[in-house]
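Hey,

Quick one before I head out. I ran the complex with zinc ion overnight. Inputs first:
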Amino acid sequence: MRTVIFKLIVSTCVFAIVAQAQTRFPQKDHSASRQQVSRPTSDQNLATKAGANDFLLPGQGFASRKATTIPAQKSITSSIVSSGTPVESIVQYQSFSFGTTFTLHAFSGKYVSYLLPESQIGVNGLSRDEIRELVDLTDVMYAHMMEIVGGEPGGEGLLTIAMINPGYDFGAKGWVGKKGVEMYEGYGVRYRSDFLEGCVPNPVVHEMSHNFDLYNAYISHDGNNVHAWTGFLIPYAQYYSQAGASWHGNVVSPRTLLDQAIDIDLDAWDTAGTTASWNQCVKSGSGCADREIYANETWAGIFLRYARLHGTSAVKRALRYVITYKTAHPTPPATAEAKNEVLVSAFSAGAEANVACELNSWNWPVSAEAQGQMAISFPNQNSLCSDVDNDTYSPASGDHNDSSSAIRPNAVETLNGLDDDCDHSVDDVLFRELDDVSADVHSAQYVSVPGHIIGHTATADDSDSYQIQIDTPRSLNIWAKGMGKSFSGWFELRYAGDPDTTAPVYLPYEIVGATVIPFDRAGAWILTVRPWAGAGEAYELFLGKIDQVVSPQLQIIAPPKLNTILVSVTTDQDSFKELTPTSARLWAEGLGFVAEQSFQPVMTFKLKLATTYNIRLRTQLFYADSPLSSATKSVSTGIRYKAFPNPPAGQISPIAVTPKVESEPRLKTNTRSQKVRSLRAPDLGLLRSGPQ
Ligand SMILES: [Zn+2]
């Protein structure tokens, strides 16, 4: 098999270099955008004709997610197992959504297998090189979800992500708690620019979040709550991975993504204050539509706010608490109140603190019993709830510096290099629209960058034009929200020297409002905001810097000697602002994380594999047990092991050639004699069994 892949890569590599059409701004179909900019109350957009939902509950769907290898006609999904090497095979795939069978090419990694029809591979689809990258990136995401959630979806073999065409674009389907994703066949190509930027396509992250929904029945509210869980896990996995999310190739940094998800999810809830309640707006899942409060978003927002306050380790401990609870209670709690009780207990166990005061300040219910239990378990006062600087805000209620009363939510932002108003942006001076700002691009209102605008619509069609100065070409992170409700509308962006040529920019509806806008010329730009709202409504606009993301460099530093690979990992220390990594891990395509070493600015990994091939490696920096950088782009070792000769001419049948395993893959200490430990010894049984 391997040899066939190589051959095809060689013969199709010219297609992989096809330049992507560069447009200055992401552009969308206008009419579609107008409908899509509204808040995604769920991901209904992913589910069109195949039914109301983009997910199937465990009891639904066709019981067998079958993928039968051709021509061996051997077994079912269990044949799609990790081989330790990226492999391709042809399978007959039976859809769990439709029951129909498709002939597909399966590209398998360590945890996932993408199944694509012939039509989506090659000239009009994805190159095999691109597919390998997609498989491997999705493997990394699977590993991260497993770390967060502490478990895996049910079902045999690899998680199959089948790109199928049942005759129409049905969006996507994810099996809740089980392995199995299906999406319209065109999605691979549609999201190519995203995974080429190092981000797993958003619909895949979404559906995988359904697969990793293992505890929802224990901790969420009643009603249709599967999108409460995904509302949490989608942005959190993208944040945790430190890869962020890509929208049409524009990557939003992980931190910005998390902040925005929280703000958007909880803006209406926070604005309503105690006039809204969990009983009214969350418990049954129905929400309080009159105030744009949605049960799923509110639940997800509270979880994300907890996650931001306490960090990734707390989230993991909280979910491990739920695992223990689930084991002890095979039947989920019967009421929404009882489920919330488990959630609150999990939060407490995760934070190792009495979190009642935090949740109270977020208007989230804590029963008297839970309150009493936490007071016993954690008798010390929760310092995150105290207001040491007497500015009426505690860290739990958003104070980023509780030793300075000048720094608090709603403080006036001044140009002092500090985030005075605790909105996660430094020196984003506020412009508040008092007199109506003109829509006329020739008399635009000057605002500073980074900036923060609170504007309003004087009339139903009111638009406002702002002028910003860009000193050097760069990208800005721009996002908008309504005040206490969702923002709907769009932007138009023009170069001031050329204002009559409109290059409209639309808010991608998928991304809780944020988009990364490249400004390719220095000078003045006009940003026209066109809210899609009635008269007298307010909006809030943020013009933010792009976060600097820490990224190590990975290099193959020694010519491969037989089956030994020497890899250097170099990190620019100046890039660490808050934390220094504690370790670096090495990721090998098809094998997962294979080694970890204590962090050094320059590190060397010496990796000895029983069977080397054109393996791709990545590295990722960690702080304790959580990523501190994204996994780097893959670097190919360029090694082809002599045991895999080229296939005879004309043989294109992708029949797997199982590598001869000569010895157990092992990891050696590096030249600096640092301690290297194996994270997950590749399963030799699987290595041997390989696809047939
Ligand atoms: Zn969904």
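The CA atoms of residues 123 and 625 lie 41 Å apart.

Talk tomorrow,
K.
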